[in-house]
Amino acid sequence: MSYLVLARKYRPQVFSDIIGQEIVTQALQNAITSGKIGQAYLFSGPRGVGKTTAARIFAKALNCKKGPIAEPDNTCQLCQEITEGNSLDVLEIDGASNRGIDAIKALRENVKFAPSYARYKIYIIDEVHQLSNDGFNALLKTLEEPPRHIIFIFATTEPQSIPETILSRCQRFSFKLITAAVIEKHLKTIAAKEKITISDEALNIISQSAQGSMRDAQSTLDQVISFVGAGQEIAGHTVRSILGITSQELLLKCSGAIFMQTATDILTLISEAQEQGLDLYQLAKDLHGHFRNLVMAKISAQPQELITLSQEAINALKDQIEPVPEEALLHYIELLETLERDMKYTDQPKIVLEIGLLRIARPYIAIDELIGRLEALEKGNSGNNTAAKPLVKKSPLLKAEAVPEQKAVVGNTPLRQQWDIVLEEVRKKKPGLAASLGQARVKDLSGTVLTVEFGQQDKFQKQTIERADNIKIIEAIARQVFQIPIKIASITSAGSTIPAELAGEEEIILEEEETVLNGDNLQAPAIDTAPAEGDPVVRRVLDIFGGEIVSNNIKKGE
Q1: CATH topology of domain 6-174
Q2: Bridge partners (DSSP) listed for residue 258
Q3: Long-range contacts of range 242-248, CB-CB < 8 Å, 24 or more positions apart?
Q4: Looking at residue 23, what is its pLDDT?
Q5: What are the residues whose beta carbons fall under 8 Å from the beta carbon of 302, sequence distance 6 or more?
Q6: When comparing pLDDT for 504 and 298, which is higher?
Q7: DSSP secondary structure letter of residue 390
Q8: I want to staple 436 with a disulfide (CB 3.0 to 4.6 A). Which of 294, 407, 461, 481 is the partner?
Q9: Is the pLDDT of residue 282 over 70?
Q10: Bigger pLDDT: 55 or 549?
Q11: CB count, 10 Å around CB of 144?
């Protein structure tokens, strides 16, 4: 006997076998037991959720030798013929290939004849929305006043495409998507019956990828079994490889790189994903879903009810998202939605993904904070007209004054090297905290007090590490690395800083009034010291809104 795919082998044969559609099945059973049988039914819903299966079981329950009965016995000749698809009185018609007026006219002629030996002659028309307008019009009269022995059951994934004149003559039943948890439980039962060894992680991945369709889940399980081979255990990483799904580890790395605004890491991760054979469009989709999970982990007291991941994976999400504002997360999701849409239609997916993620990784400034900065700028200009230190394009004639690197030594090891070890250990324990701590620069070690310095734009990150629970974690790790009872002190840099989005581009900040030159007789180019033109906040606003300065004579109250 030829192999029977799982979707057919485990196709429900009675109402109680249908998974996840209890409301519909109960309503149909009540109609049968009460004798209130309609002339036309419309089963609508997504693919693979049981519409056609329910139609067949309904037909069996109505025509069963013991019926009409709430559950067909599946032993009588009529039930067996309907199950095998060769009943003369239960006809399945594909609406896509019989959509014209001629096919419907033939159907109209056939409904005049009584059933061969069944109780009802039942027409199941699948994908009925594919019928042409002429076909619907030809069906209308028959549907309105059919012979008493005729029942129509229509199945469709697009009920909105069916004319209202048809809908008004049908009893409508809406089939819903099946939850991943229900699908996973059913697949586990199938795996046990088939004597297949498969991990819970693998079942979870298959259930998630099915997106509510039981048939899709069963087909995917079939595919995975064929790939792995008989007697082999099916692991989660194997399923991800077969389906091209991004691993949770890679997604966490990508979101971490976005939060830390490290362009190099983002580009490296994209290249690694491509080398692993991942579909970059799928990566963009998975990132979109990953950030949705991050939002759920951020705002929900019970994220395990909203995120179908292991508790360990949810804890990793919560750790990473802790220092990130909710408003920033929503901003990231909007950008990822746009990126996913752009990826779908491009023939250069890698370029689009790289540019899109680099754009997303630019520092996020909330509108309230931006307004506050502008108000502070206005007050400063109206007060004393002190010019902000300007930004200029780097020139071969100019170089930034070198700042000597801290060379403090503990245990014959440079301070910076020790600090890097602390950062790495914090990242292993709490990735979200490491994202904030990574914005700090180690300044000096005086006795047992280790001072770290944040830029003026890193106010939020500084506040995050100063939290009692976070500082306790950092100091405990630092104590292990430095082998002395370290205390962490955080300060804010006194000088102006380059906005993080300009890092890596060829701009420098002039920290002193005098410019350091490459030669004794060289003159620095003229620099426009207008306060508005040179202020980083104003430059950021101009970049965002595509504006230009027409006047910098800002007066109080204007």
Answers
A1: Rossmann fold (3.40.50)
A2: none
A3: 243/205, 243/206, 243/209, 244/277, 244/278, 244/279, 244/282, 245/205, 245/209, 245/282, 245/286, 246/273, 246/278, 246/282, 246/283, 246/286, 246/287, 246/290, 248/309, 248/313, 248/316
A4: 94
A5: none
A6: 298
A7: P
A8: 461
A9: yes
A10: 55
A11: 13
- Residue in 211, 207, 197, 297 with CA at minimum distance from that of residue 251: 297
CATH of domain 180-243: 1.10.8.60
Q: Are 253 and 273 in contact (CB under 8 A)?
A: no
What is the average pLDDT score of the chain? 80
Instruction: Kindly list the strands in the beta sheet with 40-44, ordered across the sheet, starting from the edge strand earlier in the chain.
Output: 90-94, 121-126, 150-156, 40-44, 171-174
DSSP secondary structure letters along 70-100: SS--S-SHHHHHHHHT--SSEEEEETTTS-S
d(CA 351, CA 171): 51
Q: Residues, the chain, total?
A: 558
- Rounded Cα distance, 138 and 123, in Å: 15
Residue 537: predicted pLDDT = 59
Distance of alpha carbon 544 from alpha carbon 370, whole angstroms: 11
DSSP of 281-336: HHHHHHHHHHHHHHHHHHH-S-GGGT--S-HHHHHHHHHHHTTS-HHHHHHHHHHH
Q: What integer pLDDT is reported at residue 491 of this predicted model?
A: 85
Helices (H) and strands (E) in the chain, counts: 24, 12
Per-residue CA distances from 452 to 67, 238, 440 (Å): 81, 44, 6
128 and 159 Cβ atoms separated by less than 8 Å: no
What pLDDT was estimated at residue 432? Answer: 78
Q: Which two tokens stand for residue 139?
A: 């069906």
Fold of domain 248-360: Zinc Finger, Delta Prime; domain 3 (1.20.272)
Fold: same for 180-243 and 409-498: no
Give mean pLDDT, residues 413-431: 81
pTM of the full structure = 0.60
Radius of gyration of the chain (CA): 34
CATH 3.40.50.300 fits 409-498, yes or no: no
Query: Taking 70 as the threshold, does the pLDDT of residue 1 lie above it?
Result: no
Q: Which amino acid is at 228?
A: V
pLDDT, residue 369, reads: 66
Three-state helix/strand/coil letters over 409-458: EECCEEHHHHHHHHHHHHHHHCHHHHHHHCCCEEEEEECCEEEEEECCCC
* Tokens 């196709």, located at residue: 11
Query: Phi and psi dihedrals of 154, rounded to 5?
Result: -100, 140
Res 277: pLDDT: 83
Q: Which residues have C-beta within 8 Å of that of residue 80, sequence separation ≥ 6?
A: 74
Domain assignments of the chain as residue spans, ordered by start: 6-174, 180-243, 248-360, 409-498
For the chain, helix, strand, coil in percent to 5 are 50, 10, 40
The strand pair at 40-44 and 171-174 is best described as parallel
